[in-house]
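thread from #wetlab-drylab

HS: before we spend reagent money on co-crystallization trials with adenosine monophosphate, can we at least see a predicted complex? here's what I'd submit
DV: go for it
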Amino acid sequence: MKNIAVIIETDVSKSGREEVKEICFGMITIAREKNCELFAFVINADIQALKPDLKSFGIANILDIVLESDLQYNPVVRAKAMVKAVEKFHIDAVFGLCTPMGKDLLPRMAAQLDAPLVMGCIDVDLQPDSHTKNCLAKTLQYSGKAIATIKTRGNIPIFGVKPNAVKPVKAQTDTRILRFDGIDLDATKLKLIQTGRNDKSADINLSEADIIIAGGRGMKNPENFTTLFKCAKILNASVGASRVAVDEGWVPYSMQVGQTGEKVNPKVYIACGISGSIQHFAGMKTSQMVIAINSDKDAPIMSNSDYYVVADALEVIPELTKLLSSTQPKAANLPNYGVGNKF
Amino acid sequence: MQIYVCVRHVPDSAASITVTGGAGIDQNIAFLINPFDEHAITQAVKIRDKIQGAEVIAICLGPDDAQKTLQSSLAMGADRGVLVQTSENHDSILTAKALKTAIEQDGSPDLILTGKESIDAEGMQTMFRIGALFNFPVVNNIVKFNIQDNEAIVDHEFSSGIVNRYKMTLPCVVGAGKALNVPKYPTFPDIVKARKKPVKKIALTDLNIETVTNSMTVVKLEPLLQKRNPEEIKGTAVQAAEQIVQILKFEAKVIS
Ligand SMILES: Cc1cc2nc3c(=O)[nH]c(=O)nc-3n(C[C@H](O)[C@H](O)[C@H](O)COP(=O)(O)OP(=O)(O)OC[C@H]3O[C@@H](n4cnc5c(N)ncnc54)[C@H](O)[C@@H]3O)c2cc1C
Ligand SMILES: Nc1ncnc2c1ncn2[C@@H]1O[C@H](COP(=O)(O)O)[C@@H](O)[C@H]1O
């Protein structure tokens, strides 16, 4: 029997309720294996609100981690709390998401535990053979040009799962809630002093987005990007950009998709006026569906898409926005950035 | 003040890679400095130029060919280089131990910079491991850096547009994000001058690192093939938009 921890991230729904982020369910699906017991780790969350969903995905234990000090948003404190929970509940493997939060938390945990860590996992096998504790994880390497199978050796391997890597599968179970509090924590060497937004891309969470509309040089100027923002708003999509659009100063760097930008994994990626360079593909190659709108039928993005439109993106996008205004997006989650003081 | 910058020797992002032997790549392509590490070097040089007596040391664990990456670092302004020689590809557990030991043997770090991630291994973790080994605080993906008294004030880009500001005691470890600065590419004289700067070479085996039992090993590497079947959406802009809506609704099922 193995104890497996999954680190849960939450969102606030339109009605103001705390809920499990949808991308967690795929991660739980990957983490769930025969003869294993699942522990959901949640920090300072509304456990009762989260319980029904966690129960329907096979979580036997919800660990309600309560951090009371005003240091609760300090990443060192959070990582230490997670590590203490791992030790106390004899956890054999940890799963988290390869999201902004996971990219900070998981390597801190791995460094503290001196444990193996694979980020960006698209699949994990916890028991490839019964004689060892070795695990196998699949992840992308070489800027998305190759899939690597990585063998982890050592106790408590940690896996950062890529959002949307697998389809969530339900599995009902009995669920109990365990409280873990009174953790004595401090972080003297690192203090969080402020948190806030630095530019207009703040509502964009590219690494977790289901739908991304991205613009490149073909968008021609910053004003045309507003048409993308408009369309994205109705679709509940995020807006991305190529490096050229960023280098031209049309949009902030945080919107760049690609090898030196964000690695994304949406269900749909709509590329507008983007040629499809090798470095751009490095960031969006794994998108489930790619729709390209480009005036040049020979642009590389076209032959690497599922659907392509040979047209001026500046004509198609406004039409799309008009049509969509009469349709409803499927889900609309408000981002949850509830941390510390504001800038 | 000693500022160490960890630089990784990586395949050129524009090169196609060929898998050989099942778990490695054909090394007959251009390798160069990891793009994020250029931002780390640039920042280190900026800090040094403001502090008298400060020194920037670029350090790399890699093959002989990685001297090129150190030369680029020196041309960008680092004062000297350290190459920890190895012919193998190591995971970040061992890499962090090797870099820590080599830094410790070389001097006493007040600040260690890395890139926010490597573009080949995409490990996203080496900086945190180095920090833990030294017991130094770590912040990755920084977009602003300032030293005030004996502390560093850094802005960490948490996600697109969300920034957290931290105060860290020195010595500390920071991972450079792309928005931190704009690297100044070396001029020809910079490159010539760099050739005269010292580069110390140490064999990994001479660092006498204790045996590491925890590891991550690439056991298989497969090219990620594109298996898309492009289908053209024809018609006027309005017709194209109509078809896209249908696809989003019925095929991708992202709208209802
Ligand atoms: C080390 C390194 C790292 C890099 N990292 C990244 C990265 O992370 N992300 C990234 O994106 N790039 C990156 N690049 C840059 C990359 O090589 C390309 O230069 C860049 O992706 C091209 O951007 P683009 O597609 O917008 O522009 P272009 O290649 O110029 O393409 C513009 C496209 O728009 C089309 N077009 C023009 N007008 C219209 C219109 N009205 N309607 C529709 N289509 C139109 C054109 O036909 C063309 O195909 C990197 C490069 C290097 C060397
Ligand atoms: N072999 C190496 N030599 C020197 N620095 C390295 C090496 N590997 C990783 N690093 C540093 O650690 C950062 C993060 O790498 P990674 O953890 O692989 O994403 C890189 O940007 C480098 O600054």
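DV: The mean pLDDT of chain B is 95.
HS: ok that's useful, forwarding to the group
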